């Protein structure tokens, strides 16, 4: 009885194993056929295979290079953070004017106050001022690193018991680079930047959705949301992705054309009173849209600024306030 039982159990296990073996052999055959077809495809298109392999190799090289650069920048940032602590805060137009009014009330008995106005890319003036003995490495490194497209304004007390060291990326560039030494902080030029009568055109650019408009120091004058269909980014690889990217680029080009024509009409409507063009969002798309204004408006200064604003029907009102805001730094 017992031997007969084991024989039956063994036979059932053998049948199960044979069934599983057959299934595995079937799967194996499918894999063989798939690999053979893939090999045939690669061998029939050696140029494509070689091109793909080279592109992959180049991509890996670029990625490794970028990773190294990111690490180097991270290390540099960590080192700088160990040396100095810089507070920064954003102020609206009204808050900035109130802040300047407070700074103006401070007085020194020994003329140790410096008022700094720098146009974009003019930080050498700080480095060379008075033989380089006034502004220390902390201020010069800060000015070099901030890379503000609207320049810098600053108020610095050089005395050992310094009462102030404030700098700002103003909403618009100073007229010229200059440094004043006095017993008070000279804020008139800074106040003019915030409160001067001016009309500013703006572009908040994104693929498929952009906002254009014009604003003054008093608020929004006019804005328009321009929407066109642009395909979302493709996540898959291969020829499908390349074809998709070409179609997406065509959609973006059509969006730039439509927004550019509307922006040109806006500038024509306010011709002669537009002081500058503020561009935000996608930088390349924004400057391409501004480029459609043509030679007639090429002399209008174009400035890029970053705003955390999404393109929607309310963006114009928000941008009209953000454009006159400023980032302040306390060193």
UniProtKB/TrEMBL annotation:
InterPro entries per the UniProt record, alphabetical: eFR1_2_sf, VLRF1
Designated name of the protein: Actinobacteria/chloroflexi VLRF1 release factor domain-containing protein
Coiled coil: 7-83
Signal peptide: none
Pfam families in the record: acVLRF1 (PF18859)
Keywords (A to Z) from UniProt: Coiled coil
The organism's place on the tree of life at top rank: Archaea
Limits of the Actinobacteria/chloroflexi VLRF1 release factor domain: 199-284
SUPFAM superfamilies: Translational machinery components (SSF53137)
